[in-house]
Amino acid sequence: MSLGLVEKTASPTVTKLGGQIGAEIRGITLSPDLDEASVAFVYNAMLEHKVVFFRKQSLTSAQQEALGARFGTLVSHPTVSSAQGTKHIFELKARKGRAANTWHADMTFMASYPKASILRCIRPSPYGGATLWANTATAYRSLPQPLQDLADKLWAIHTNNEYDHTDLIAERDWEFIQWQANVFAARVFEAKHPVVRVHPETGEKTLLLGQFIKRLVGFNLPDSRALLGILQGHVTRPENTITWHWQAGDVAMWDNRATEHRAIADFGQEERELQRVTLVGDTPRSVDGQQSQQVVNGTPNPVLLLEQTGTWGPRAQD
Ligand SMILES: [Fe+2]
């Protein structure tokens, strides 16, 4: 069956771009009408290379949504509204150099966070604005055995409500800080995840870390930060990453269970526009089979409550 596909699609090729992560697929034009075998080809390449790239595509927002649905069930962001006229498109429209410029996997503040994301470049910045991905499976394998043994036992709380505002405060970007508080974290989600999860499809152990981590369970903040710094350092070693310089039309698709990513906010006051869809993921399992849990599920942000009601929580019944 797959032989028929390869003939039909003029032999798609997968070209490795980095030693540990990343490949470009050529010979496939992305469309919601891809045949089953092409969908499987792309998905399997993604599982193997963690992130795959396509140049010179011409998807519309609606086609990107329909294409995403070929690989799984689409899921919207829990707090940020989808782009106008779309059901599930998350808009990354930067002005003033804003970008998701900290290492993270998408939406890990949800217990069942997305298994994959598909990002499409509408308008690249005229310079800069690249995106980096890191392989969290090779990162785990690069740990010395005693550190693997420790990581296997660690759990962490991930939240959408503890963004590091240091840079934004330094730049006096009050508008974006307000957006973080009033939109991104208007409702608070926190999930408890194992630091090492077993990938449900490849069986690999991957490190589940990134920007949304608040702290390690059972550790004080200084110890938590020190340990996370050591582990995260293995994820983001340059040799463990791939950098993609966007052109209009490019599409990247990554395994959100086996990668972290970040943008580089080095495009000054220029504009940069991308759109993303995410696919429903399973609930992670630790090395010993325990599942992640949603520990806070969309409660109103206490700081907003304080502003609106003058109390930190629901008013006491008196
Ligand atoms: Fe992201």
List its traits.
Double-stranded beta-helix; binds fe (ii) ion; alpha+beta; 4-stranded antiparallel sheet; globular; 8-stranded mixed sheet
Describe it for me?
By secondary structure, the chain is of the alpha+beta class. The chain has one domain (2-306): 4-Layer Sandwich (Double-stranded beta-helix), CATH 3.60.130.10. It is 26% helix and 27% strand. It is built from nine helices and 17 strands. The strands form four sheets. Strands 1, 2, 3, 4, 5, 6, 14 and 16 form an eight-stranded mixed sheet that branches. A four-stranded antiparallel sheet has the order 12-8-9-17. A hairpin with a 6-residue loop joins β1 and β2 (23-26). The longest helix has 15 residues, at 221-235. Bound molecules: fe (ii) ion. Fe (ii) ion binds next to loops. Residues 100, 104, 106, 261 line the site of fe (ii) ion (FE2). Residues 14-278 form the TauD/TfdA-like domain.
Shape: globular
**Topology as H/E string?**
HEEHEHEEEEHHEHHEEEEHEEEEEH
Major sheet: 8 strands, mixed
Helical percent range?
25-40%
CATH topology: Double-stranded beta-helix
Rounded radius of gyration (Å): 20 Å
DSSP strand content:
25-35%
Structural class: alpha+beta
Distance between the termini: 70 Å
Query: Average pLDDT value?
Result: 90
